[in-house]
Write a structure and sequence with these properties.
The protein has 745 residues and is of the alpha+beta class. The protein is 15% helix and 28% strand. The chain is elongated, with a radius of gyration of 42 Å.
């Protein structure tokens, strides 16, 4: 427990609490006024496994949201402490953390900060160069002191039960010419080292509130004895002393398992799964340590001595697992501390293994302590450690769930793994990236047989080919799909690779609008029939002369010209885009979205004996407003600059009209947007708007390298001219009336 003098004050909700978060090395501080209410959380964990695992080392974390901070503090170290009832001489420490995330909120008024203690750096650091430079043999105490000195982290002074055991070099760490480098196959993480140290001493690793590494042991719980209720309230009868902190009166919700994690009665230590190792204690609740590299070179007698030292320490951990508990927050309580709850029917005694402490003034603690009734035989075997005692290593793991065989050859820089379960078989062979020479590998997997004993699914893989065989083949990926019915979906295009021309030829691609289109293919028209079964080749020898044929499928000047001589329709890329030629000679588009020409490729001109008609039915319009009521258009009319000019491509005749850029400027000056006046269009293009790259390049060349184009719809100016003439007419009529009145006088 930290600062037990403050424990009772934290149980009292009326106690004034002032938290200060200091950025180490600066004058920057974050106090209560800057913390967003309800965002502060301290997450501490000794062991988060569903089954208690000795040697666990987990990083603690603090999260909070602050406002009015002096910018990003990611990567900086923060120190947190809290003053109780103004007693600044005895603050409550929360710990030292390194900021890993500092994210501003959407409105940029606050910052969401996440920081971890030094354990985060310990377990994620590569210490292979440190290990390679050690001078073996040495004692375990010398080994751990060297480890933490290398990391620059102080330890709480402690004597560990196996501190005096000899540590030899059991991990292969082959060096290159650079003495600080170690080959990839012998990478060693800080987690591997610190976990091995704690495991072989029956404890857990934790960074305490002062920023030091602390070895945490689960002390034997001393139960409290209470007199029978019928003996109270005698003054000379009190509960016997207990080493548990009582949570009675402080918890709000509480849920626990209906069993107790039993005392460990037997300990087994093995250097590998197929090694006999050493067993001490009596059968019952067995705990197994396998693959700890610190003891991988030990003899049976040495392992037995280590286990005898260790079993009494581990045997103390007997407790009732806590599913969940919400109680009044008290930072004086620390990880590994025995606590008890006086439930309605029984006294529940456990350890504080995990907690999330939230809030500042009104604190809440969410506490849990997971565990099982007895330890499973395999849960602690084949740990995530390095087991390279020789240049070549082999490992076989067998249990009821699977069979796994792993083999590594550090000399050849190869490794292989085979795993078999009831549902699947998998195998892999790898060579280190920097190793030279090709590596052949093969795999064959057969799945299921039909009633005729025929294989219905098979996968065969080798270095140069992969063969798949089965009743149905299904492929699902982000850019390609093949479903069980044989339907293929592709995202972009279907290509022929490395043709005789030396290029990749697109067979099915997408046009500028994202619609599929056949490209770059030759068709034997005599082998293609129309919907009536008649060969297309009988209708036209080439599609270029569709007007002389009864029907044709393609034409250069019209995507598809179907039965052109009998005047049916001109069809575009999509089936819904076409122009139909009616019986009386009208060209009828499929919808109002079909255009004649485009902005960058307009028609040069056109002739009509009857004039063009534009849809003007009131039933096709909405949002009416009289133009006379908008004074902006009168100002716009005055700013228009009628010009005479010649076209660059045809300078023989003079034209009169407007310059689109002048019209745009007049609109801007009058506050009229393009959405309010359809007469002007300023279009910006990209390569996707053209049928080919050649057309796109041609457009840019003809347009002076610019990718935009202005157009005017002069029809829109008719209404503007009309309204201005009406205004002038109204003024003339007014002047005539006023003149007549003067003449009568």
């Amino acid at each position: 427990m930290i600062n037990s003098n403050l424990k009772e004050k934290y149980w009292d909700s009326s106690t004034d609490k002032q938290m200060v978060i200091s950025v180490v090395g600066t004058n920057q501080k974050i106090d209560n006024s800057m913390l967003e209410i309800g965002t502060f959380a301290l997450e501490e964990s000794l062991c988060s496994e569903s089954e208690l695992k000795f040697g666990a080392c987990e990083a603690n974390c603090v999260k909070f949201t602050a406002r009015n901070t002096a910018g990003n503090i990611i990567g900086k170290t923060i120190s947190i402490e809290e003053t109780i009832d103004g007693d600044s001489q005895n603050p409550m420490p929360y710990g030292v953390f390194k900021v890993a995330s500092d994210v501003p909120t959407a409105d940029r008024t606050k910052r969401q900060i996440t920081a971890y203690d030094a354990m985060y750096d310990i377990i994620n650091t590569d210490v292979k160069s440190w290990y390679a430079g050690l001078s073996f043999p040495m004692t375990l105490k010398q080994f751990r002191n060297s480890f933490f000195a290398h990391l620059g982290i102080a330890q709480v002074e402690t004597s560990l039960v196996n501190d005096s055991m000899t540590v030899n070099k059991t991990i292969v760490a082959t060096q290159t010419d650079d003495s600080s480098a170690v080959t990839e196959e012998s990478a060693i993480s800080g987690k591997t080292v610190v976990t091995a140290i704690c495991e072989i001493n029956g404890c857990f690793g934790n960074i305490n509130r002062n920023g030091k590494f602390e070895y945490v042991f689960l002390k034997k719980i001393v139960s409290a004895l209470y007199p029978a209720e019928d003996l109270f309230p005698s003054d000379n009868l009190f509960p016997s002393d207990a080493n548990t902190e009582s949570m009675t009166g402080h918890y709000i919700t509480f849920d626990y398992e209906d069993f107790q994690s039993k005392e460990i009665t037997q300990l087994e230590i093995k250097t590998s799964e197929d090694n006999a190792g050493a067993i001490v204690g009596t059968a019952g609740n067995n705990y197994s340590i396998t693959g700890n590299f610190l003891v991988s070179d030990k003899t049976g007698a040495e392992l037995e001595q280590i286990a005898n030292n260790l079993l009494p320490i581990m045997a103390q951990a007997a407790y009732t697992p806590i599913k969940s508990c919400t109680c009044v927050g008290n930072p004086c309580l620390t990880l590994g501390e025995p606590i008890r709850f006086n439930a309605t029917r029984e006294i529940v005694e456990t350890y504080l293994l995990q907690r999330t402490l939230t809030g500042v003034q009104s604190k809440r603690d969410s506490i849990s302590a997971q565990g099982t009734q007895t330890h499973s035989a395999k849960v602690n075997s084949i740990r995530d450690t390095i087991e390279s005692v020789e240049r070549r290593t082999g490992k076989l793991e067998r249990n009821a769930d699977h069979l796994q065989s792993t083999y590594e050859d550090l000399e050849k820089q190869t490794s292989s793994k085979f795993e078999q379960t009831a549902e699947s078989i998998s195998a892999e062979v790898n060579r280190a990236q920097k190793a030279e020479g090709a590596l052949d590998a093969s795999l064959e997997l057969k799945l299921g047989r039909d009633e005729n004993d025929q294989v219905i699914s098979m996968i065969n893989a080798s270095a140069d080919q992969i063969m798949l065989r089965g009743n149905r083949l299904i492929i699902e990926s982000n850019n390609f799909q093949l479903d069980g019915n044989g339907r293929v979906s592709i995202i972009d295009s279907l290509n022929f690779i490395a043709t005789s021309l030396g290029d990749d030829i697109v067979i099915i691609g997408l046009d500028a609008r994202g619609r599929p289109m056949l490209q770059n293919i030759r068709i034997d028209l005599n082998s293609v029939t129309d919907q009536n079964g008649e060969a297309i080749g009988d209708h036209a020898s080439t599609a270029d002369h569709a007007t002389t044929a009864d029907s044709a499928t393609t034409a250069e000047s019209a995507r598809q010209c179907i039965m052109a001589s009998t005047a049916h329709y001109l069809q575009g890329i999509g089936l819904s885009d076409y122009v139909r030629i009616s019986d009386n000679g009208n060209l009828i588009p499929s919808s109002s979205s079909v255009y004649c020409g485009t902005n960058p490729n307009p028609f040069a001109g056109g002739y009509s004996s009857g004039g063009w008609k534009t849809t003007s039915d009131g039933r096709k319009k909405k949002d009416f407003r009289k133009l006379l009521e908008d004074d902006r258009f009168e100002r716009f009319f005055e700013l228009l600059q009628p010009m005479e000019y010649r076209l660059i491509e045809n300078d023989e005749k003079m034209h009169i009209g407007f310059v689109a850029q002048d019209v745009e400027q007049a609109m801007t000056d009058c506050g009229i947007s393009e959405n309010e006046f359809y007469g002007l269009e300023h279009a910006v293009f990209s390569e996707k708007d053209f049928e080919s790259n050649e057309e796109w390049e041609k457009f840019l060349e003809q347009n002076g390298g610019e990718n935009d184009m202005y157009t005017l719809c002069y029809q829109e100016f008719i209404a503007l001219n009309t309204v201005m003439i009406q205004k002038l007419q109204n003024r003339c009529n007014d002047f005539e009336r006023r003149l007549s009145a003067l003449e009568r006088k």
